[in-house]
Write a structure and sequence with these properties.
CATH superfamily of the largest domain in chain A: FAD/NAD(P)-binding domain
EC number (chains A, B): 1.14.13.9
Distance between the termini of chain A: 25 Å
Largest interface: A-B, 14 and 14 residues
Shape of chain A: globular
Largest sheet of chain A: 7 strands, mixed
Number of strands of chain A: 19
GO biological process, one term (chains A, B): anthranilate metabolic process
Transmembrane segments (chains A, B): 20-37
Helix content of chain A: 25-40%
Keywords (chains A, B): FAD, Flavoprotein, Membrane, Monooxygenase, NADP, Oxidoreductase, Pyridine nucleotide biosynthesis, Transmembrane, Transmembrane helix
Number of domains of chain A: 3
Number of helices of chain A: 15
Strand order of the largest sheet of chain A: 6-5-14-15-16-13-17
CATH topology of the largest domain in chain A: FAD/NAD(P)-binding domain
InterPro entries (chains A, B): FAD-bd, FAD/NAD-bd_sf, Kynurenine_monooxygenase
Structural class of chain A: alpha/beta
Radius of gyration of chain A: 23 Å
Oligomer: homodimer
CATH class of the largest domain in chain A: Alpha Beta
């Protein structure tokens, strides 16, 4: 899909080869560096944190992410998809756990389609190993960006170990330094820079479901588990070692909230009441709950993403979203794919590449931000509603009957490369159709009734293929 | 209206008297200092710019602002309303100038009600003189706030003249440092701080209408002049010296835009075509146009406005708005009135004062931000529409007929102290009523037709007194 830049005529031009600066060596920054190196440039990468591959670097908790098709495509572009797939666990659907411990199942897509639980740290380390092996990429850890002087094209860096500060020029700067980006923070102070950061009233906390004594999984391994409870929820994704990493999404304040659970006894009683089937699997619950941080959930939007033809933001630095669609990393990886395609098309014309990048990506970043909030409501509340599950079954029937006209929203987002903005618009049209149909449907069997089928045909006559 | 704190029992308590720090000595900061001093506190004021009263300080262009009832009330509270009124020019209505130079007039309120053109610099200097005369207030100019360490309660200041930097502790900090507040910028980096800055695609530029040879005004002195042109507009407010300060609100980009007017010839031709009656009064047009900056128009919203019980934001630092309702300064001054009332009610309990302040003011700040954008459309576009002017006349008739139930939105905002949020909600209900009535009305006379009167009665039966 992605052709190496050396194959294009424009990029053979020696003047194209530049010294590029990437700020941030997280998932997006390290992947981006690999793409840029393929185009023949020399890359300096600066990262605030120490090298996560060094002994002594915080091993940390197991944090996993759901990798889906957009992410896989970006990994394929640098040839490491197969290696990552070997350490990824496919999840083919959601398992919902109700308050009595009863389970129900909802597949994510067609048989064989799934999202993949991968270790965030493991994936990052693998990308860094690849970057380190590239002669054109130089990694610099423990380098905090204090400020970017956009006019003078200078970074102000501080060495975390020595405290030493230095100023360093750049020709072209790629800001992949995450939701609290220092590069973006400097751009925010320029005239006519639109910016918003907005927090949910929910926080999250990571907890653990232990493996069985024999190292196997105590819940269905190939699923994402959800304990939907209306105003809040817990989810769990499998790890390779037989554990699951759980995340509790929970209000900061109120009757049932982080603020209200202050003692081990309160936590234990609350979990036993609302997550009864999970508690026996969580021997470390109290230690995890009081030892792990409570983190906040922010959406960041900004524009422009570009400063002249010398700075561009990608990934969370440009568009941090809440995690409920599992698309944060995938959207950032898709940024790399899109930038790579633009570098192939307009090699050497950085102004054009950057302008096209933000023109193409900004509406999609806004859409996936909205999708992520939308899916929070679906996950914590609707998936516990029998009417909603019936609607999902009816929708599957429509999708099977009209495969060219109806791809469920979740599949558009997760299993296709359709632009997020288009998926979101389609999804809203589908929602409107479903709510008209569901007014006539009380059971799965109703779908085959002639008057319902007639209505379905009428609706589908309006839907383009 | 505002009682001196020395009259209240609580504030006589010596422990209440504190060293307070005000960051920013603009209009709101200097007024706030005067209020705080009345409560017996000692105030340190820091201001980035040099003292505007010093010789050598940029005399600058004449910039004027429209002072209305909320602003007057705040000035009355410190006893300088009468002195300011002597150098303010009342404007009793709008004079609209069409593209042929024809004029039409629309009063702002009842006879005698007006908004007042005052010199921004003059008012600021007067407030500073008063502050300087207070033994409890110490003014420090040329002190730029680089950062606030919220945890350590320390300011990081730089002396603009010497470049010297210092760290200074504070007990309680009032951020009145404007739309680009350094205090807010430090708060923005704390967890769960919601923030947005959003720019209009319009900029503005100040221009001048000269006085007549005898020093008198070449346009009606007691009016705000508008040249509404649909997508853009020019306005003019009178100055004491016979000149008017004009402001052109104009798109940054496009066919008719700042970007498109690049030569003196282009500017001259454009102005002669669209503002034909103004051009002969603007001998400095070309010099002004190319000499004065093109400024941008930002709306800033944030929350919380308070950090624990030791930092609070007021004025533009908390809620910068676009200037189209003439309420930016008035809203900031009303912040001082509200804070003063809370200090009377809860003297000594700063946590309570600050929490109540943001609880009361945030919805009103959001409302006036929306009102300001709404009024831009009205001023640049609707006031040129005969149907809109007819609607305003009909609305005046309703207001006269139902004085207890109908105060026009403009009057609620400008000539009352009704909370902005309430005014805005009322205004939207009034808009809905007017659009239903106007569907039956083609002329002023139609208002008296029995079927229209019946409709008016029906509508008004729903409107609370």
């Amino acid at each position: 899909m992605t052709t190496s830049a050396t194959q294009t005529a424009a990029s053979r031009n020696q003047t194209d080869k530049e010294q590029l600066t990437v700020m941030g060596a997280g998932l997006v920054g390290s992947l981006l560096s690999l793409y840029l190196a393929r185009h023949g440039h020399r890359i300096q990468v600066f990262e605030r944190r120490p090298d996560p591959r060094q002994a002594g670097a915080a091993a940390g908790r197991s944090i996993n992410l759901a990798l889906s098709d957009r992410g896989w495509r970006a990994l394929e572009g640098i040839g490491i998809a197969e290696a990552v797939r070997e350490v990824a666990i496919p999840m083919y659907g959601r398992v919902m756990h109700d308050a009595q411990g009863n389970l129900s199942y909802q597949p994510y897509g067609q048989p064989g389609q799934g999202i993949y639980s991968v270790s965030r740290g493991g994936l990052n380390r693998r990308l860094l190993d690849l970057a380190e092996a590239e002669p054109n990429i130089q990694l610099n850890f423990g380098q905090q960006c204090l400020e970017v002087d956009l006019r003078e094209q200078q970074l102000h860096l501080r060495d975390s170990a020595t405290g030493e500060e230095k100023h360093l020029g750049y020709q072209r700067l790629f800001g992949t330094d995450g939701a609290f980006s220092a590069v973006r923070s400097s751009m925010q102070r320029t005239d006519r820079f639109d910016y918003s950061q907005s927090y949910l009233e929910y926080g999250y906390k990571e907890l653990t479901i232990a493996s069985a004594a024999d190292g196997t999984w105590q819940l269905e391994k190939h699923a994402l588990h959800i304990w939907p409870r209306g105003r809040y929820m817990m989810i769990a994704l499998p790890n390779l070692d037989g554990t699951f990493t759980c995340t509790l999404f929970f209000p900061f304040e109120g009757d049932e909230s982080f603020a209200a659970l202050r003692t081990p006894g309160q936590v234990q009683a609350f979990f036993e009441r609302v997550f009864p089937d999970a508690v026996p699997l969580m021997p470390e619950l109290i230690d995890d709950f009081f030892g792990n941080p409570t983190s906040s959930l922010v959406t960041v939007k900004c524009f422009p993403w570009v400063h002249e033809d010398d700075v561009v933001l990608l990934g969370d630095a440009a568009h941090a979203i809440v995690p409920f669609y599992g698309q944060g990393m995938n959207a950032g990886f898709e940024d790399c794919t899109v930038l790579d395609e633009l570098l192939n098309a307009h090699a050497g014309d950085w102004g054009k590449v950057f302008q096209e990048f933000q023109r193409l990506r900004k509406p999609n970043a806004d859409a996936v931000a909205d999708l992520a909030v939308y899916n929070f409501v679906e996950m914590r509340d609707k998936v516990a509603d029998p009417r909603f599950l019936l609607q999902k079954k009816i929708e599957s029937k429509i999708a099977a009957q009209y495969p060219d006209q109806w791809l469920p929203l979740y599949s558009q987002v997760t299993f296709s490369h359709r632009p997020y903005a288009e998926a979101w618009a389609n999804g809203q049209r589908q929602d409107a159709i479903m709510s008209r149909l569901m007014a006539r449907i009380q059971s799965e069997e109703d779908y085959d009734r002639p008057e319902v089928q007639q209505l379905v045909q009428q609706e589908m006559a309006q839907v383009p293929a």
